[in-house]
Amino acid sequence: MLESKLGAWIVAAYLLLVLLVSSPLLVDAAIHHGNAIAYLVLVILTLPLSWVSLRLLDLVTDVNAFYTTGIHYYLTISVLYVCAFINAAAIYRLILFIRRKRDGAG
Known about the structure:
By secondary structure, the chain is mainly α. It has 4 helices and no strands. The chain is elongated.
């Protein structure tokens, strides 16, 4: 059961925003010059984990970050979505922590 409706709504809005921003990437099934802005915004939304994860992915693969297709595209998108879900969990826990501190102090 959810402990915070506000936290659930904020996390749902965050995940919906991530999905909306990534929709050009999903439609094209590639990262290229036409949707590079969407890719950058998606990386920014999933910071700080995406920066570390994409740096590690860059060390393992030899593809250009702004022109990715095939398995490397799916790997990159999967990493960004995992980062988004981890960030969503962290946001929810942070909201719970703040609400508990506020209710305990009040």
